[in-house]
Amino acid sequence: MSRRREHVPTRPTWRCRACGIAWPCSAAKLRLLGEYRHDQAALTVYLATLLAEAAEQLARLDPGVDPAGLADRFITWARARG
Ligand SMILES: [Zn+2]
Fold first, then answer.
1. Which of 30, 58, 63, 66 is the most buried (most CB within 10 A)?
2. Distance between CA atoms of 69 and 65, rounded to whole angstroms?
3. How many angstroms separate the CA atoms of 63 and 82, rounded?
4. Rounded to 5 degrees, what are φ and ψ at 60?
């Protein structure tokens, strides 16, 4: 029996458990946009929570991590388009 791997972040590296790339990958973004399609504000709050957690953990792994880059990666993609 093989369990389908979900596109969720691995802590503390914040890479996708399924793809291995920096989370959120496109599959994760699509899933989140679908789950929160009626509540954009809740998605932003959720992503901000993850961003705070990731920023703390990633800074511990790599003190040179760029907070602005992280904000782009976690939040900007989800902003309303138009
Ligand atoms: Zn993924």
1. 58
2. 8
3. 35
4. -70, -35
The domain tally of the chain equals: 1
23-50 pLDDT per residue, tens: 999 999 999 999 999 999 999 999 999 9
CA of 60 to the centre of ligand 1 (A): 23
Residue at 42: amino acid letter: A
pTM value? 0.87
Is the dihedral angle over the CA atoms 30, 36, 41, 44 positive or is it negative? negative
Would the pLDDT of 19 be above 70?
yes
Residue 50, both tokens: 């993850």
Residue 38 inside a domain? The answer is yes
Q: How far is CA 60 from the centre of its chain?
A: 18
What separation in Å is there between the alpha carbon of 16 and the centre of ligand 1? 5
